[in-house]
Automatic annotation (TrEMBL):
Organism listed in the record: Polyporus arcularius HHB13444
Region (Disordered): 308-341
Cleavable signal peptide: 1-20
Protein name: Macrofage activating glyco protein
Top-level division of the source organism's lineage: Eukaryota
Keyword tags: Signal
Length: 372
């Protein structure tokens, strides 16, 4: 976040009687700077009661918290048959309205979370790249409490107030080579992003030992969706695991002349993103192995069934006026992170701050969000 943005946030917060969440202040340790051991997790990773209120769930999850009402906010991404998504705790929700409250929905028992209902997952590609693990797939999102036409948005460990979306949400993995291949050894993933909406998703976790984790799991391109942030060859109806090259970091591309360029996402005030100057390059993959869904998700209540039709590449646009997890779209509203108008709500994981202040500061808050 720029110095100007931090100053504007401080002005708005001070005027509303709350403390600005400046990462240079002793009042706040950014979520992405907090490190925890899998076997010694705090009850809540977020202990701040600033601006957006308190963490809704908890991070210390076990057999006593597992079930349909779990508020566990510790997610894992491990293997083709073992991963989680962030989704709302209450039915008929949108990502834009609940981004700070999402809970973990997983494919395996034993994590203390909610389980994704059987039949919800209709296709998945899990890729192992040198710098990250990535799960891209297709889902009936109504079965994980999302409205059917929600275009969704991005969840990540940042946000303009540095507390993450969801607040205090932690992610771990046992799938990186640096853990020595020990499936019982979980590493905290510091950089990650999860795009949800339009019945598709991407959850990418970047190797905490890798040299380029922050760039590969970039969190500032929340409005251009899965196909640009997680380019893949995922197909609805196919369940596979592949080795993969690293993608180009989101927003980085090579133009027709061979020059490397950086795309700048325009502010929401300019309206819907209808065109982009490049097409995302799907990284080369190899050693792909396909599985029957019934062999993968054995902990779910019922086996997943094959869908009708396909939607390759996890790049369907959907009916979104949100940040379009699977396509490009735009939100409306006075401040980033506010509920959209139209069919769906949006999310700005990199710049979503909900501050209940007098209307005279709405413009200031909008400026903060777009300068982040």
């Amino acid at each position: 976040m720029s110095t100007v943005a931090l100053s504007l946030l401080a002005i708005a917060a001070a005027s509303s009687g709350v403390l600005a969440q400046d990462p240079s202040s002793s009042a706040l340790i950014p979520l992405a700077s907090k490190h925890f051991d899998w076997n010694d997790l705090p009850y809540q990773a977020d202990t701040d009661n600033l601006v957006r209120g308190t963490q809704q769930g908890y991070n210390r999850c076990n057999s006593t918290t597992e079930g349909p009402d779990s508020m566990c906010q510790t997610a894992t991404v491990n293997h083709l048959d073992d991963w989680c998504l962030w989704a709302p705790p209450k039915p008929d929700s949108t990502i834009g309205d609940t981004e700070g409250e999402e809970v973990a929905w997983c494919t395996k028992k034993g994590r203390g979370t909610r389980l994704i209902p059987g039949g919800a997952i209709t296709g998945v590609q899990f890729t192992r790249a040198p710098g990250y693990l990535q799960i891209v797939g297709f889902i009936d999102q109504t079965k994980i409490n999302l409205q059917s036409d929600d275009g969704g948005g991005e969840l990540d460990p940042h946000g303009a107030d540095f507390r993450g979306n969801p607040l205090g949400g932690l992610v771990f993995s046992n799938g990186f080579p640096s853990n020595g291949g020990k499936n019982d050894t979980f590493q905290q993933v510091i950089e990650w992003h999860n795009f949800m909406g339009s019945n598709s998703f991407c959850f990418k976790v970047c190797d905490p030992s890798g040299p380029n984790a922050a760039a590969l799991c970039q969190h500032i391109y929340d409005r251009i969706g899965v196909s640009y942030n997680c380019p893949s060859a995922a197909k609805n109806g196919t369940f596979e695991v592949c080795d993969s090259d690293n993608q180009d970091p989101p927003g980085i591309y090579t133009d027709a002349s061979g020059a490397v360029q950086t795309y700048s996402q325009p502010p929401e005030s300019l309206g819907v993103i209808s065109t982009l100057p490049y097409q995302p390059k799907v990284p080369s993959s190899s050693n792909c192995v396909q599985y029957a869904s019934t062999a993968l998700f054995t902990d779910l209540v019922a086996p997943t069934s094959a869908p009708t039709g396909t939607a390759g590449g996890a790049s369907a646009t959907g009916k979104a006026s949100g940040s379009g997890a699977a396509g490009t779209a735009s939100r409306s509203g006075a401040s980033a992170g506010a509920s959209s108008t139209g069919a769906a709500s949006g999310s700005n994981g990199a710049a979503a701050v909900r501050i209940s202040v007098v209307a005279t500061f709405a413009g200031v808050l909008g400026a903060v969000a777009f300068l982040a």
